[in-house]
């Protein structure tokens, strides 16, 4: 008994999710490992009913392992809590910049959510996954004319960010669409929140959205355009936020703008409050649950609309990280190690900053376990190094782990958001494969990039070939 308690506290077991009943799951964003994570009789980590060691034998490493149950649970918790807490119509749209690929879009679409896309590429991916354009919202602070034409042709909604875009759209729209193009206007709310400087967007000094001081001019211009129809207003305050207060404050600002829009007879029926709910990357992270976030937002919108005597708008939220971040882990194979006496011990893995650029970009912290030694005591403090030619390529500094050998499988938790989508081919390393796991079944959703993939789009001009010998 004592020894079980000790290893629970002091082994990979401590990161297992606290789930008594999968029919009533907790909020995925508060867990370090996916909801279906377990340890099997071989002392191996199992996700979605699949032994991680067997997945690695079959698909290789590095490998993104996406737990379908956790992803679907997060979608349902967002969707159903909005139904419970908001009296008007609501729509949750997935910020697909967190991870855009056909299978992820397919799963989220099948849960009835819509999509936020930020480029022609993300728009194309959602369309190819079978998403109805009516549920797609196109964001971005510098959409090209080609992207805008593509968006108008598909009939998706466009979240207009600035004057140039507004004017380009009024020129493009009449030729490309018989009906007015439906838009939302993005405004900068001037709300500060505590998160990394690079991922704050709501403060006034932000590259995103119209300056609220210009709001009347924008409303006036939009109200005079026949080719566009303004359906709503949008604001987003930032990402990986644990505080509820800024989300509670935002609807008040949006409602004030909505009131102003009435003076210009704009047919506004939608408020989009953005995303931003954080997830747990380490034990000390303590994000609110999806239900708590939805409740605060829904109540704040109702209260603000009441105060300004506005009819309840359609309420849109666009989470990315909290929908998918905690559903995925990355499995690596442990390679060499190095002891620097009295300073630190390194172990190296077969990936790093090219499959997870977050530590080197934002100094993000992660946790890891050894998937084939789950209950072994954590006796070591080691720095998990990536394999790229750069000293800063460290996946986790000072990780606590059991004694680790070359060939062990090291699993980094909570890698579903902004990992694959920010992956690169630095050092000409192919991007990893990804699998989706569910009830003992594993399916490839992204193929591993091969050497051939890496040179597929390279071109060698004839004159260089000729001059080589
Ligand atoms: N809506 C808008 C307009 C956004 O800009 C974002 C994220 C979201 C929604 C979704 O936010 P989320 O729910 O995921 O927090 N690469 C950074 C995160 C950048 C977030 C950009 N915008 C990272 O790895 O932390």
Blueprint of the fold:
Elements lengths: L1 H8 L28 E2 L5 E3 L2 E2 H8 L3 E5 H18 L4 E6 L6 H9 L3 E4 L2 H9 L7 E3 L6 H10 L2 E4 L2 H14 L4 E6 L28 H9 L4 E7 L10 H19 L6 E3 L17 H18 L6 E4 L3 H4 L3 E13 L3 E6 L8 H5 L5 E3 L9 E6 L8 E8 L7 E4 L20 E6 L2 E6 L4 H5 L6 H6 L2
Parallel strand pairs: 4-19, 5-6, 5-12, 6-7, 7-8, 8-9, 9-10, 10-11, 11-12, 14-16
Antiparallel strand pairs: 1-2, 2-3, 4-13, 13-14, 13-18, 15-18, 16-17, 19-20
Major beta-sheet overview: 9 strands, mixed
Give the beta-strand count: 20
Query: What share of residues is helical?
Result: 25-40%
Small molecules held by this entry: ligand LLP
| Bulk shape | globular
Low-confidence stretches: none
Pairing-aware structural class of the strands and helices? Answer: alpha/beta
Query: Terminal Cα separation, in Å?
Result: 74 Å
Number of helices: 14
CATH homologous superfamily (4th level) name of the largest domain: Lyase, Ornithine Decarboxylase, Chain A, domain 1
Cofactor: pyridoxal 5'-phosphate
Keywords: Amino-acid biosynthesis, Decarboxylase, Lyase, Lysine biosynthesis, Pyridoxal phosphate
Function: Specifically catalyzes the decarboxylation of meso-diaminopimelate (meso-DAP) to L-lysine.
Family: Belongs to the Orn/Lys/Arg decarboxylase class-II family. LysA subfamily.
């Amino acid at each position: 008994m004592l020894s079980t308690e000790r290893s629970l506290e002091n082994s990979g077991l401590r990161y297992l999710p606290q789930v008594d009943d999968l029919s009533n799951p907790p909020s995925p964003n508060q867990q370090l490992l996916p909801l279906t994570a377990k340890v099997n009789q071989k002392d191996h980590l199992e996700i979605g009913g699949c032994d991680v060691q067997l997945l690695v034998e079959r698909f290789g490493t590095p490998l993104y392992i996406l737990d379908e149950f956790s992803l679907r649970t997060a979608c349902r918790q967002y969707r159903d809590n909005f139904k419970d807490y908001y009296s008007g119509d609501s729509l949750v749209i997935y910020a697909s910049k967190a991870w855009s690929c056909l299978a992820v879009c397919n799963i989220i679409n099948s849960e009835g959510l819509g999509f936020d896309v930020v480029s022609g590429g993300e728009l194309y991916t959602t369309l190819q996954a079978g998403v109805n354009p009516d549920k797609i919202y196109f964001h971005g602070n510098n959409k090209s004319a080609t992207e805008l034409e593509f968006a108008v042709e598909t009939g998706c909604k466009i979240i207009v960010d600035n004057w140039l875009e507004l004017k380009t759209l009024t020129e493009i729209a009449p030729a490309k669409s018989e009906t007015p193009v439906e838009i939302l206007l993005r405004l900068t709310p001037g709300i500060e929140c505590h998160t990394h400087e690079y991922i704050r967007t709501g403060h006034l000094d932000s590259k995103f959205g119209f300056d609220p001081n210009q709001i009347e001019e924008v409303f006036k211009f939009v109200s005079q355009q026949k080719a566009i129809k303004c359906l709503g207003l949008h604001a987003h305050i930032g990402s990986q936020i644990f505080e509820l207060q800024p989300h509670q404050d935002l609807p008040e600002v949006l409602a004030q703008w909505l009131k102003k829009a009435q003076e210009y007879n704009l047919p506004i029926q939608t408020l989009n409050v953005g995303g931003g709910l954080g997830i747990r990357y380490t034990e000390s992270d303590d994000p609110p649950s999806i239900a708590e976030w939805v409740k605060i937002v829904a109540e704040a919108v109702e209260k603000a609309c009441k105060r300004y005597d506005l009819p309840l708008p359609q309420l849109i939220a666009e989470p990315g990280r909290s929908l998918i971040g905690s559903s995925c882990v990355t499995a690596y194979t442990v390679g060499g190690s190095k002891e620097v006496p009295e300073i630190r011990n390194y172990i190296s893995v077969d990936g790093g900053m090219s499959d997870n650029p977050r530590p080197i970009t934002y100094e993000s912290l992660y946790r890891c376990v050894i998937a084939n030694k789950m209950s072994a005591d954590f006796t070591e403090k080691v720095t998990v190094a990536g394999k790229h030619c750069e000293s800063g390529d460290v996946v986790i500094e000072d990780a606590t782990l059991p004694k680790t050998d070359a060939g062990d499988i090291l699993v980094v938790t909570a890698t579903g958001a902004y990992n694959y989508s920010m992956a690169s081919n630095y050092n000409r390393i192919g991007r990893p494969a990804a699998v989706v796991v569910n009830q003992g079944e594993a399916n490839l959703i992204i193929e591993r990039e091969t050497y051939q993939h890496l040179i597929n789009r390279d071109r060698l001009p004839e004159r260089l070939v000729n001059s080589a010998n």
